[in-house]
Design a protein that fits this description.
Length: about 850
């Protein structure tokens, strides 16, 4: 049934796409030129770049570019929302009085010469074997890669707006994807002089490894048992052993076998299809949405894919903790799974084929196909990082996931448990006591014995060895097990050695990486190692139960190599990277991949937000701290992660406001302020509507938030700032929900300094904005959103040409009619006598969506008003 519905949706979208909205948009621009300070010639030559139907908005999203004499103004893509044949929202990125700002209409250097100029400016070798492959138009060409790019090189004549002067310089726009994938340059070369005018990079490199990271946490770092690998028989079809969403990663729960996770709407032929005919074309981690493979040598070549065989059973063991190279097929499987889940989930919220999503074959035949995600697992070209490249629709993106160095000192597999349910290798940290004894390379094999003390001192743990040891006889000649903390480390080790232990295994008392134990004056003659809290507590439990646990300790040399974690298991990082593709394809439309290159842009914030909302659980609360990349950096799920502050509604832990972007580093710090605001908004909506664990079709506040964020991206202009992003979300709620959440949204943003009076200045600067904490009238706390408790007044016709009638259920006497635009500014006000009916003339208002507030002495109501 779902597949039938899918085909019906495709049919409906195809019908709507066939409509030409050029005349509607031109008429709107003509009527509203003065509002945007545009000249006649600024709006006479436009081009519809792309359009799509939004199910959530029940409207057309149409992206329009400004041209002068047929040449496109770069990054002028502007979103228009058309509903019932009228423009109900528009955000223009047009240049005013373009005719006097252009410097030429004819280039002096050729398109092919522009490629050579670009290579020189970028420090690349001179292109060779550069051949013309296709002439798209008399101003647009495609050349071969010239041995400097992974892809063919498109070149188009455009106008580049110069930020310092506002001039429009004739330029060649071209893109070069470096062979090593580190950069996907999109540049404008002056078509008269050959000078490099502007450089954008379509690779969003997150540079996660920068800066120190906190390791405070309240959760265990590793939950997987040594030999758990519990199998759940698949119910038929496909099955993948993964850290299933909403798990953050291995620090949040065990791996599990997930059966048939492909969504029948978003991926109607499954994850391994590429031809739109029932039946998988591949038994590997390859399909219509993503090709996941290892790239350990970092050459973007044809690495190993995980193979599920004819039964598509991708059941590969993780057995953490161990070196990532030991579980490559499992890592590839998790990377394949999360990428496909991102595709399927976001499809439901409007990141679909016609909106520029990532698919080899577009089943609807809308949008451009051929652009599934190349996802490289355990990529050897970097460390402590991840990135995602997003070319325009039809160009395949690449996700590169790297390995991560464990924080602090290196770890090795310094202990083995020999037999029994706990058998296996254990990562440990050797001690660094002054005058201590390192772990020898020759094996020490004995039974483990738990230290028991009389607990007579200040310590409250009878197994930390801080007080008089009671079981010296059992410890003598054995390997002692003791908890860390409670007293001086060397002091307790000396006591354990005096009890006759031949070695000590210390169980860390925090759920983070073991540490190299420090201290002086110990003169220890026995070796001491520290193991993970989760591993050690399992051993302590077994010993308390009377089980015999035999272990071997030795320096196996593994500690000489850095212990690493695999970013392919950190679902938040994978979602974050995929999120760059979403925000880049939706802002300015799928053909504009350079709309998020300004300084006050929120790309990193949207990406963090996606990672969090897809890992929310019903047990979460708003004040819980959340961090990005907690698994990769060795933290529990309550760790701060890679940002300067955790995400939480608790201002004591995160006090970011709009002004904070002035001191935060761009783009990651700036983005984290935006994600903080979105996180607050999400929790406010959850407080209002509850949490729904059904991320596909739920109706909870989390679902509403995700939909508003996706729709907001479609409504905001190219190069948006915070105020643009806020307004787009408010407008999305107005169009989709009649403004039901208007006041809630305003309060959420105003609480973080993005209130009505906030100004963003130039979006190319993060330093010239001003925060404000005010909300529109009627949105103060304690006032019902939009006065929706009771309908007192009926406004008609609506939509209206400005002649507005009001019918009242009550004789309210004198009343004030106020009309506000979506930025909360009052644009109309009139006093009326409202006994049964009244009329006002607001025909001077521009076409668009407004809010009409009707107030009397004892009644008020706010109503959405559309002016045609």
């Amino acid at each position: 049934m779902k597949k039938v519905l899918y085909l019906i949706v495709i049919f409906a979208v195809n019908i709507s796409f066939a409509q030409d909205y050029s005349s509607v948009i031109k008429s709107y621009l003509q009527q509203n030129r003065s509002q945007y300070s545009l000249e006649q010639q600024d709006v006479s030559d436009i081009s519809i770049v792309s359009q799509s139907f939004s199910k959530s908005l029940q409207a057309q999203n149409v992206y329009v570019a400004q041209r002068y004499q047929g040449i496109t103004v770069f990054n002028s893509n502007s979103p228009f929302v058309i509903k019932d044949g009228s423009v109900v929202n528009a955000k223009l990125s047009f240049t005013e009085n373009a005719a006097v700002k252009v410097n030429s209409t004819s280039p002096s250097i050729s398109a092919v010469n522009a490629i050579s100029k670009a290579a020189n400016w970028l420090g690349l070798q001179n292109p060779s074997n550069l051949n013309l492959i296709e002439t798209v138009s008399d101003r647009s060409y495609i050349f071969s890669n010239g041995n400097i790019s992974q892809n063919n090189i498109p070149v188009e004549l455009v106008y580049q707006k110069m930020e310092d002067t506002g001039a429009l310089k004739l330029a060649w726009d071209l893109s070069i994807y470096l062979i090593d994938s580190t950069h996907y340059y999109n540049v404008r070369i002056d078509a008269l002089t050959g000078v490099l005018l502007a450089t954008d990079d379509w690779v969003a490199s997150c540079n996660f490894g920068e800066g120190a990271h906190s390791h405070a946490s309240a959760e265990s770092i590793l939950f997987s048992d040594k030999n758990s690998n519990s199998s759940i028989a698949p119910m038929g079809g496909t099955a993948y052993r993964v850290f299933a969403l909403p798990l953050i990663g291995p620090n949040d729960g065990d791996d599990q076998l997930v059966s048939d996770p492909a969504d029948p709407i978003a991926s109607p032929f499954g994850w391994h299809d590429v031809d739109g005919v029932p039946g998988a074309e591949f038994t590997t981690t390859r399909g219509n949405n993503v090709l996941a493979q290892e790239d350990a040598n970092g050459n973007n070549g044809n690495g190993m894919l995980a193979d599920g065989g004819a039964g598509l059973l991708f059941d590969f063991a993780y057995d953490l903790p161990r070196a990532p190279a030991a579980f490559r097929e499992a890592a590839i499987t998790n990377l394949f799974y999360v990428n496909n889940m991102m595709h399927d989930i976001m499809f439901q919220y409007g990141f679909d084929e016609v909106s520029g999503n990532f698919q080899l074959k577009n089943y609807s035949a809308l949008g451009l196909g051929g652009d599934f995600v190349f996802a490289d697992a355990q990529d050897g070209s970097g460390l402590n990082n991840a990135n995602f490249s997003t070319p325009p629709d039809g160009g395949a993106p690449r996700m590169q996931m790297y390995l991560w160095s464990a924080p602090g000192d290196v770890l090795g597999t310094l202990m083995n448990v020999n037999g029994g349910p706990l058998a296996g290798e254990y990562l440990a940290m050797d001690s660094n006591f002054i005058n201590g004894t390192p772990l020898p390379t020759t094996a020490i094999t004995e039974d483990l014995v738990l230290v028991v003390d009389d607990n007579a001192g200040s310590s409250t743990d009878p197994n930390d060895g801080c007080d008089t040891i009671l079981n010296s006889a059992e410890i003598n000649g054995k390997i002692a097990v003791v908890r860390w903390g409670g007293c001086n480390g060397p002091f307790k080790m000396t006591k354990v050695e005096a009890a006759g232990a031949i070695a000590v295994v210390v169980v860390y008392n925090l759920p983070t990486d073991p540490i190299a134990m420090l201290g002086g004056g110990s003169n220890l003659s026995i070796p001491c190692i520290m193991i993970y809290q989760s591993d050690g507590e399992a051993i302590i439990t077994a010993l308390l139960n009377g089980d015999t646990v035999n272990a071997t300790l030795r320096d196996d040399g593994s500690g000489n190599d850095p212990f690493q974690r695999d970013g392919d298991l950190d679902n938040v990082i994978i979602a974050h990277e995929y999120g760059h593709g979403i925000s880049n394809r939706l802002t300015g439309g799928p053909s504009a991949s350079s709309c998020l290159q300004n300084q006050e842009q929120m790309g990193e914030g949207w990406s963090d937000y996606f990672g969090y909302i897809l890992t929310m659980k019903a047990t979460d609360v708003s004040t819980d701290p959340r961090g990005t990349g907690t698994y990769a950096v060795g933290e529990g799920i309550a760790g701060r992660g890679l940002r300067t502050k955790p995400y939480t509604t608790d201002f004591a832990l995160n006090d970011f406001t709009y002004n904070s972007i002035k001191t935060q580093v761009a783009p990651h710090g700036v983005g984290s302020v935006w994600a903080t605001m979105l996180w607050d908004l999400t929790w406010d909506l959850i407080d209002e509507y509850g949490f729904d664990p059904d991320i596909y079709n739920g109706s909870g506040g989390n679902n509403i938030s995700l939909q508003l964020v996706i729709d907001g991206m479609k409504l905001q202009p190219c190069s948006p700032g915070f105020v643009d992003g806020r307004d787009a979300i408010i407008e999305a709620d107005l169009i989709a929900n009649g403004g039901a959440n208007r006041c809630l949204i305003w309060r959420a943003f105003a609480n973080r300094g993005l209130g009505v009076s906030a100004t963003q200045g130039s979006t190319n600067s993060k330093s010239d904005g001003t925060e404000a904490f005010d909300v529109p009238p009627g949105c103060e706390l304690g006032v019902s959103d939009n006065g929706a408790d009771e309908i007192n007044f009926i406004v008609f016709p609506n939509p209206s040409n400005g002649e507005i009638n009001i019918k009242s259920k009550y004789d309210v006497g004198d009343a004030t009619i106020s009309i506000f635009d979506m930025n909360g500014r009052k644009v109309f006000s009139q006093e009326v006598e409202l006994r049964q009916n009244a009329s006002v003339n607001a025909s001077g208002l521009n076409t668009g969506i407004y809010l009409m507030q009707i107030e009397s002495a004892d009644r008020s109501q706010t109503t959405k008003l559309i002016i045609n």
